[in-house]
Amino acid sequence: MIHIHEKTLQDLEFPTVLQHVSEHCVTPLGNDKALKILPYKKKEELHIALQLTNEYLSSFYNDNRIPNHGFDTIAKEIKLLRIENTYLEVHGLKKIVSISLTSNEIVTYLKKFEEYYPTLNEYASRIEVTKVIIEKVDAIVDRFGDIKDNASSLLFDLRQSINRIKGKINASFSSALNTYHNLEYLDDIRESVVDNKRVLAVKAMYRRKVKGAIMGGSKTGSIVYIEPETTLQFSRELNNLEYEEQEEVVRILKDVTNYIRPFLPLLEQYQAFLIDIDVISAKAKYAKSMNGILPEISEDRNIHLRDAYHPLLYLNNLEKKEKTFPQTIELKQDSRIIVISGPNAGGKSITLKTVGLLQVMLQSGMLIPVHERSKACLFDRVLSDIGDNQSIENHLSTYSYRLKQMNYFLKKCNKNTLFLIDEFGTGSDPELGGALAETFLEEFYHREAFGIITTHYSNLKILANELPHMLNANMLFDERTLEPLFKLVIGQAGSSFTFEVAQKNGIPYSLINRSKKKIERSKVRFDATIAKLQKERSKLEKTGQSLMFNEKKKLEEADKLEEINAKIQKKLESYQELYDSNQRLIYLGQKVNDIAEKYFENKQKKSLMDELFKLVQIENSKRKKVSVKQKKVIKAKEKQVKQEAEKKVEVIRKKKKAAKKKAIEAPKPKPVLKIGDRVRMEDGRAIGSIDKIEKNKAIVNYGLFTTNVSLEQLELVEAAK
Length: 721
Fold this sequence. Notes:
This protein is α/β, with parallel strands linked by helices. About 55% of the residues lie in helices and about 15% in strands. The protein has 21 helices and 19 strands. The strands form 5 sheets. Strands 10-11-12-8-13-14 form a 6-stranded mixed beta sheet, sandwiched between helices. Strands 18-17-16-15-19 form a 5-stranded antiparallel beta sheet, with no helix packed on it. Helix 2 (about 15-20) runs antiparallel to helix 3 (about 30-35) and helix 9 (about 155-180) runs antiparallel to helix 10. Residues about 390-395 have low confidence and may be disordered.
């Protein structure tokens, strides 16, 4: 028998989770039921509930979506069915038909897809599928919500009579309207409607001339509305018939209601079933929103939550687009209690609450956001003491309240219990409170209970180190900035970084030194050693993360290369096909050319036709018979490959053309001129030889004369040998 205290549910913010789940419900009754979800008392019921939610979640990811389960409540109709001689209105009957159809559809569907939804099908198989209620109501109510004419022979006759009388009323009214209109007794509007009856709009001065019942007048008094006397007689008859019709409709409704009354338990079952489906669906939708899964439920006492997220924190951060840090925690027989220590604001309490909330959710039939290789077990009790519980009403201090809680823990704690205590031992004298807390922890340990506690007390850290089935743990901090890394590390106590944090916040170094002298040297050394170890671990953690990142990058690169290789291979195959096809066409072209040349020489038509026919037959023997559709596909594929090849060739041609153009356009490097070189002026024709070079000028000898020219203006004709 499982029992989880209401206070624990409040401490772990379970009602907020239920609020989120209820928002996914599609019916008000489902919403109410979701807000009242509690942990299951029996393990068998819990296992079924978890399977139901898990199967419904799977329907979101496969092609067999479970039909819609929305319905209008029939609570009022159920109440009326319990009272004799009452009858249901048409609207109520329509709701009963709707709920019957929905239930039948879901039950039939789950039976059809039993392979996918075995637990849901077994759960739904208790519900009877019957169409008699639907058929009975459909026989008397049409799709517009009116009672059908053929619902009874009397109703049929009455409605026939009503239609005839209405015809007579219209005929007699039209006759009176024409008569009085010709006599000019009527106003321009001629007629109107009063109390759902057609009336003549008579000028007030002729009111006595028109026989009939006065039904009213206009605001100005210039018009009097009169129902003609001939119409009046038929109207009375119509009223009587309509009264009889209404009586017959009530009789029919009573008859149908009496027929449905024995099905009351089934209708209650239908409604309860659809409410349950609504809650199961809401749990599944909530699980989907945070990637929740059903972990392996271990019969042994063994918890291994890998990459576990706090649901509320995860969804809140998702909305803000912020990162949430998952935790990995393991509790088993040889490491059943974890003592988390370290400075505040590092995530100790969140880690504690994550484990507690996920356990409570799981034991309430809900899926949890953890890695698929996680493992969980079920506890008979989950005890918690989280937060400052000072009670003004009960005149209790924090410490008094916590002692009361510890007393409750001592009464209830056993090997099937999970206990969660935040800031264990606080609220009293550190030395004395720590000693008492140590005793309590020893007691829980000897009772083989599972638990997680957070503390700043050194004696509790030492106790966890000494006892074989208890572990220390700490939340990692950056060794330089002292910023939290929100990562739990098992196997080592955490320093509170008391003096380091004080120094970071600007407390003078002299005061910190004085404080250090006031306490035992051994304690300072112990805390300093822990701090040092934490820093070392933090460095190792960073190195590990860096290596993992590089490994991941390498794998990604390998995948990319493999993908590129596959694409190249595919393209090569396509080009090979294109090449083979073109080679075949070239061969055919050559053959046809040979035949044409032969004909050109001998002009023998028969020989030409024989050769061509033979060629066609050889080619057709190689072809496979394909459908028009397949031909289109092959042609489209060939066209695509051809286009791709042409595009590639075009690109290569353009590149070659551009390179050629560039080569032409690029200026040739100017040669270095020296004595003896044959040169000419850039814009001249006469060729001379260089006799002397001074600075940037050369003396050029043209035979008859010499001239002094800048080297820049000369171009080489022939270099000196």
